[in-house]
Amino acid sequence: MVDGTEEQVIAKKVTLRPIEVEMKKSYIDYAMSVIVGRALPDVRDGLKPVHRRILYAMNEMGLTKNKPHKKCARVVGEVLGKYHPHGDIAIYDTLVRMAQDFSMRYPLIDGQGNFGSIDGDTAAAMRYTECRLAAIADEMLADIDKDTVDMTDNFDGTLKEPLVLPARLPNLLVNGSSGIAVGMATNIPPHNLGEVVDAIVMLIDNPEAEIRDLMEVIHGPDFPTGGIIYGVDGIVEAYTSGHGRIRIRARTHIEEEENRIIVTEIPYNVRKAELLETIAELVKSKKLEGISDLRDESDKEGMRIVIELKKDAVPEVVLNQLFAHSQMQVTFGIINLALVDNQPVVLGLKEMLEYFIEHRFDVVKRRTKYDLDQAKARAHILEGLIIAIDNLDEVIRLIRKARTRDEAKESLTRRFLLSDLQAKAILEMQLQKLTGLEMKSVKDEYEQLTKKIEELQRILTDEKAIFAIIKSELLALKEKYGDERRTEIVMQAVDLDVEDLIPVEDVVVMITNSGYIKRLPLDTYKQQRRGGVGLRGMETKEEDYVVDLFVTSSHDYLMFFSSKGRAYWLKAYKVPVGGRHAKGKPIVNLLENLEKDEVIMDTIPVSVFDDEHYLVFATKKGLIKKTRLSAYRHIRSTGIIAMKLDEGDELIDTSVTDGTKEIILVTKKGMAVRFDEKEVRPTGRATYGVRGIRLREGDEVVSMAVVEPTSQLLTITEKGFGKRSLVSEYRKTRRGGVGVIAIKTGERNGDVVIAKEVSEQDELIVTSQSGMVIRIPASEVRLVGRATLGVIIMRLKEDDRICAVATVMSAEKEERILSEHRTLTPNGTAQEEPEENEKSDEDSEDDSESGA
Known about the structure:
This protein has 19 helices and 41 strands. It has about 850 residues and is an alpha+beta fold. The strands form 12 sheets. A 4-stranded mixed beta sheet has the order 14-9-8-17. A 4-stranded antiparallel beta sheet has the order 10-11-13-12, with helices on one face. A hairpin with a 3-residue loop joins strand 38 and strand 39 (about 770-775). The longest helix is centred in the middle third of the chain and has 42 residues, at about 350-390. It is elongated and about 145 Å long. The chain starts with a helix and ends in a 31-residue tail after the last helix. About 40% of the residues are buried.
């Protein structure tokens, strides 16, 4: 039973807290414990706690390179009982990995017995295997007894263990590290010791060195299993940002006489037995053809996998299939995550080197201070001995006179002004020290110590001297343990700019209503006079006709805008080339996620995506919208929303502007409204439009032209008639008006097909539904008044109709337009912006705007 007083005491000790708060705090504490205490390496010595404790325990046990091997079970028990109470299997697995020459670039443990193999075989039980520290491990533990690192209590407070090792070896980079923590992971590849040392020396000599300078000596990761790294993009990215992906291939060669492929090195962390099993399964399932036999001829001399090929098999083709479908080619994701002051930080190459240099600077400085203190203490003793030697008779007399040791020490201290340590040393001095030779050696030792103290004091006051020591020790390390690079790094086509291989040329891009697309060189079309019957530019079926045609550069970006207001992105040179009479390729094969009823309404060539230019959209129901071009920089290959549309509305035209132009909307019944572009406020990408023209019943917008007051407007009807008119003849109004007559429609002309800005230097390419194409100068289209019928542009066959018109600009105008539109290059990343669900505020203004 608990009385009232005890209940009050218990209540005072209980803190009420919401369970979600307590769970959050407890989980964060657990996560940080895993991150700091188990999963991530320290940036200074590149070791996780379990690695550090194993090396330290073996050093304390005296298992150095020149001592006999001891059972691994003994080491595991020492580590488990004194420093790392987390299970013997975890400790032994770590010990085994540090002894495997196919896992560690520079193994830290010298193992004896079965420590596993590259085939994937596991190590023998710890009671069978033996180990000791490898020679290079001495460099990790050197000077640990000279107060070079901080020590902390072990788990039960009975012993001390180092928080970090002195680590003369830049272990984090040369051996790498991998581990999975809570919510984060690290995967640092191994590197060549000589290259890392050269980079550290470079950084010491030139702290302002950049990544590109460091990469002149550190070419990339150097795996213990060799292999070939294809491409440097991932390496540069990893060294710069801390994240990167590299591709590693097996090293192979072809024996042509025997018609077989020989594999001598495989990618890092790939098990040979699993690789052979995978290849065998691929052959059995007939995913790989041309292989007749597969065998492993590896021995003590090295790896040798023989892949016998059938007589009719092409070795290069089979090899490419192996790279594509097996682990003969793998991707290594680099994550340079390490602990910096017990905080996980993603590091670039330079930062990793700088933290190591900082650590070594601290170690050398502490070691020098320790040596200085020891030298001063010894010099102090020698000073007392020299006084005793110089006054030997009196010293002997005082000692003989004293009745006790303490009395003798007190007499010496008082007579010669000695310290307790000096007096004690004199009393403990052996009689052999009184010989002439021994007396001389004491004075010589004192002189040497004096010089050493001066040198140590100089080092402590001179940072350059400390850096010189770091450099000399590292260069000695390189001389002793450095070796040749094992992993080859080669360039490949993917690292080159593909566009460098694509000629810059003007091309004609054609799109049909059923979704076929092709490109042709511009010189395919020969210039003709007005009224000609034209050349056939595309073979079409009766129900298939050309709906879009334009001239662009092969290096431009093509932005496809669909009737549903979606945008797609493609390089012009990626559009398949077709002959003049070819039908082209289905656009659905180039653009993903096109719906069955979705039609590409407009295609705009764009080289840049900046904040100074805009995309202006017009819809069938007379809405207009303006958005900054930069909002479309991150277009997904699957397409994004370019403009939100009401039900039943469609996107009919899109144009790029600089924000200072005028806009003319033209309807199929020949009405047009002209207003300043500034009347349309820029909105986000996924937004609705505002009213651009007020439509009469049965009418709809067919075209939008972005013009200047001095421009000429070309208007063409479906029956082959057209005209040029001055923009100034179109009365300017506010957006949302009914508009004025642009061209007279009716039985003779038919409905309007298109209206666009032209100049007299332009040339026109006009296309009919049947695929007939004609190229004429724009100057041959008569310049007439606004409300007129127009002249014959193209003589059409019966039931044929004009469907597309493109302009071929003069060199001067083309250069001007290109210079206006090309200022930035899109980064091509796939990131869609948040969509805006609300309509524009300007929609509320529509009812207040009157027509013309």
